[in-house]
Amino acid sequence: MKRDGQKIVGVVAWDYQIAQIADRAGADIVSVGDSVGVNLWGHSNPLEVTLEEMILVCKAVRRGTKRALVSCDFPFGPLQEGADSAVRAAIRIIKEAGADMVKLDGAADFPEAVTAVVRAGIPVFAQFGITPQTSMQHGAQGTSKMTAKLVADAKRLEEAGASLIDFTHSGPVAGPAVAGAVSIPVIGGLGGGPWLDGRMRMVHAAIGYAASAIESRTESYANVARITLDALTAYAGDVRAGRQIRGGTPVKPAS
After folding, report:
1. Residue 140 clears pLDDT 50, i.e. is over it
2. What is this structure's pTM?
3. DSSP string covering the chain
4. Mean pLDDT score of the chain, rounded to an integer?
5. Mean predicted confidence (pLDDT) in 7-32
């Protein structure tokens, strides 16, 4: 798709129903993100998610995805513990959850683990990008030096065997420089743009699913939370008024 100039559509999903819809909508990649912990289960910290939880969620997404590639995030831990640990976790995700590839956050710091996973026959979706800390660190050096470092990181990930790069907070300067420097696709979510080979978007954010979207003024493609609130309020009103609920099976009076 990159060679042909076709933009890659990536979404983040965590459940069977959304996976089916995203697949039908034409998503090219469905990424099972470790953001599930905070956004779906209410964890206070994204580091709380375990490998077992990621496998469980990925199984559901895999069942709902027939056409798109399925990627599954590593939780915090296996990558940081070393290449052997990363390979063991990757094998479990592929074998038990049915993912097509594994996504490694902060992969630029662990190129040896990327290579080890690839050598095990498992494609790697490698994430890296700009954080507030790196922005401050390189602020005095200027944008050109930061871009040069990011290009070098991307090339190192390609050489390590990564199939795909998730470049977060790329921006219109570093983004096209990185995308043009490597032959593998570079896509991105937060801080991305049309200068990349494609985009990633969390489905629940795109459709306004979270409860916080009810009062949100942020632009999205829908506001499912508000629709859901209105629907459940109407349902509660019918129950309290003694009316038959919509879609309910009417009870026939006894003869």
Report:
1. no
2. 0.89
3. -TTTTPPEEEEE--SHHHHHHHHHHT-SEEEE-TTHHHHTS--S-GGG--HHHHHHHHHHHHHH-SSSEEEEEPPSSTTTT-HHHHHHHHHHHHHHH--SEEEETTGGG-HHHHHHHHHTT--EEEEEE--HHHHHHHHTT-HHHHHHHHHHHHHHHHHHT-SEEEEET-HHHHHHHHHHH-SS-EEESTT--TTSSEEEEEHHHHTT-SGGGGS--S--S--HHHHHHHHHHHHHHHHHTTPPPTTPPPPPPP-
4. 92
5. 98
